[in-house]
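Title: Comparing notes on inverse folding

I've been comparing how different people in this forum approach sequence design from structure. To keep things fair, I'm posting one structure and asking everyone to reply with a full sequence. Here's the target:
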């Protein structure tokens, strides 16, 4: 005789989305009709029957209200509208990247101008720019050159951005972050 194994540990998934029809467990609900008019507080079963007569569903819109607010609409249409709202919000959201530009205290003017030009390009796109001035060997004795370079960067980018993180010394480097206006 073969032993049949039950899926005892099988995971039960919770239904996603708003509660609809028989899943609404409260005894009374505030009902909004399919035309948008407030039908008042009704017994849940009575509200479900009204929705079924119209060929629609009773959907819980505001579960935390007392009594919960339900609306008579098609559940497919409601889920579609929620998805559209979420996509619209996602499109409006702006992603900000952090770009890093590394310098040395002895960086020549042409290289400095080239890096500042790139920083300005990043700031106009709306990104943040992290400037790092690295010191090697005996350059550590001349940290004032690094701070002078950071002040020069602040002056050159002041039209496009403002300093988010002031220049600070960390180990063998000075770090500063500028964000776009």
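Reply #1:
Here's my take.
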């Amino acid at each position: 005789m073969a032993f049949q194994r039950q899926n005892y540990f099988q995971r039960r998934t919770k239904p996603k989305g708003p509660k609809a029809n028989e899943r609404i467990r409260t005894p009374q609900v505030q009902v909004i009709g399919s035309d948008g008019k407030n039908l008042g507080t009704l017994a849940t079963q009575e509200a479900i029957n009204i929705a079924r007569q119209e060929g629609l569903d009773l959907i819980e819109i505001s579960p935390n209200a007392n009594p919960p607010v339900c609306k008579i609409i098609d559940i497919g249409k409601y889920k579609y509208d929620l998805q559209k709202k979420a996509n619209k919000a996602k499109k409006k959201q702006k992603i900000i990247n952090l770009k890093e530009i590394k310098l040395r205290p002895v960086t020549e003017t042409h290289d400095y101008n080239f890096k500042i030009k790139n920083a300005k390009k990043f700031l106009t796109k709306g990104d943040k720019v992290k400037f790092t001035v690295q010191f090697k060997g005996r350059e550590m004795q001349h940290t004032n050159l690094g701070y002078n370079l950071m002040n020069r960067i602040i002056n050159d980018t002041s039209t496009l951005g403002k300093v988010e993180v002031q220049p600070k010394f960390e180990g063998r480097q000075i770090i500063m972050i500028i964000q776009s206006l």
